[in-house]
Amino acid sequence: MTLQQLRYMVKIVEYGSITEAARQLYITQPSLSNALKDLEKELGIEIFYRTAKGITLTVDGAEFLSYSRQVMEQAELLEQRYKGKRPSRQQCSISTQHYAFCVNAFVELVKKSCSEEYEFTLRETRTYDIIQDVGNMRSEIGILYLNAFNKGVLTKILKENRLSFHPLFEARPHVFVSSNNPLAAKSLVTLEDLEDYPCLSFEQGEYNSFYFSEEILSTVYHKKSIHVSDRATLFNLLIGLNGYTICTGVLSTDLNGNEIVSVPLASDEKMLIGWIVNSKAALSAAAREYIDHLKAFVLQYGFEILS
C-alpha cells in the first residue's frame, strides 16, 4: 500500500468518477482502475460498488477512506516539518438545506482559514441529495431537519446509509414574507392568514415526497403553490409576488438585507435542525471548524445548542 494509492482513492471519492479523477490526476483511466484493483486485492476488501450509474463507497470503503485521510494528513505534517513542504490546499465540502445560518458559518470558515490554498464546497441542495452526498463521502457534513412527521422515514434512510444525526437546535415554525407584506406587521400569523398568498417551497425533484420537504407542515393544502430550486429565486418571489415560505425563522440581515422579515407561525410543530455525518468517517479539521461556526451563529440568533 502506498500514499499514492491513498491519494488516488480520495480523488475518486472527491469527483465521484474514476474517469474524472483520472483526468484531474493526469493519468489514464485504465492506470487508475488498475491501481484501485491492486489496492482492493492487497487489502482483501471491496472499496467501491461499481454500477451503470457510477461508483459508491462500500461500508469497508467508507471506513478505509476515513483512515486514509488521517494517514495522508500525518504524512503531510511530516513533509512540512522535515522537508519544508508547503501545506496542501485545505478541503471541505458541505451539503445543506437552504439555511442562511449555514452560509454564515461557511463565510466564517473561509475567512478564518489559515491555509494559503483551499478548495471549499457549499451545496444548497435537495434533502435526498444531502443524504447521498454524505453517504458517498462527497460531502463531510450534511445539514437538515427532523420533526414528528418525517423523523421515522428519514431516520431509517440515514441508518441504511450508515449516517448519524447530531442535533444542533430546535426551532418553532416561522414564515418569511416581504417587509411590505401586510402580514409583516403581525406578531403571529395563522394558516388562515396565509390562505390567499402564494406558498413558496423548494422542489425535491425525483424524490418529491412530503417526507423530504424542507418546509414543515408539508401536507397542508395551499391554493397557490410555487416550487423553486434556489434560495435567491425564492427570496425574489417573496418580494415580487408577496408570497411566503415556512421555515426555522433564522434570517440573516447581513446576507439578505431588510426586505424580508420573519414572523412566528401559530403551530405546535417543532423542527430539530442538525448535521449528519458518515458513521465510519473522522471529520477533517475544517469540518470541525465549520460545526463550531454553526454553533456560534445559532447562539447569536438566540437558540440553545443541543450538542
Q: What's the SSE blueprint?
A:
Elements: H1 3-15, H2 18-25, H3 29-43, E1 48-51, E2 54-57, H4 59-83, E3 90-96, H5 100-111, E4 118-124, H6 127-135, E5 141-146, H7 151-160, E6 163-171, E7 174-178, H8 191-194, E8 199-202, E9 225-228, H9 231-240, E10 244-247, H10 253-256, E11 260-264, E12 271-278, H11 285-300
Parallel strand pairs: 3-4, 3-5, 8-9
Antiparallel strand pairs: 1-2, 5-12, 6-12, 7-10, 7-11
Helix pairs in contact: 1-2, 1-4, 2-3, 5-11
Question: Could you characterize the architecture of this molecule?
Answer:
The radius of gyration is 22 Å and the shape is elongated. The protein is an alpha/beta fold and about 300 residues long. Strands 4-3-5-12-6 form a five-stranded mixed sheet, sandwiched between helices. The protein has eleven helices and twelve strands. Among the domains are: about 1-90, Orthogonal Bundle (Arc Repressor Mutant, subunit A); about 170-270, Periplasmic binding protein-like II (D-Maltodextrin-Binding Protein, domain 2, 3-Layer(aba) Sandwich), CATH 3.40.190.
Brief rundown of the structure:
With 307 residues, the chain is of the alpha/beta class. 41% of the residues lie in helices and 22% in strands.
Task: State the end-to-end CA separation.
Answer: 38 Å
Q: How many β-strand stretches?
A: 12
Report the principal-axis shape: elongated
So what's the oligomer here? Answer: single chain
User: How many helical elements?
Assistant: 11
Class by SSE composition: alpha/beta
Q: What is the CATH architecture term of the domain at 170-272?
A: 3-Layer(aba) Sandwich
The helix/strand order is HHHEEHEHEHEHEEHEEHEHEEH
Amount of helix: 40-55%
Q: CATH superfamily name of the domain at 170-272?
A: Periplasmic binding protein-like II
Mean pLDDT: 87
Q: How is the largest sheet built, in terms of strand order?
A: 4-3-5-12-6
Rg (C-alpha, Å): 22 Å
Outline the low-pLDDT stretches: none
Our estimate of the beta-strand percent is: 15-25%
CATH class of the domain at 170-272: Alpha Beta
- The CATH topology annotation of the domain at 170-272 reads as D-Maltodextrin-Binding Protein, domain 2
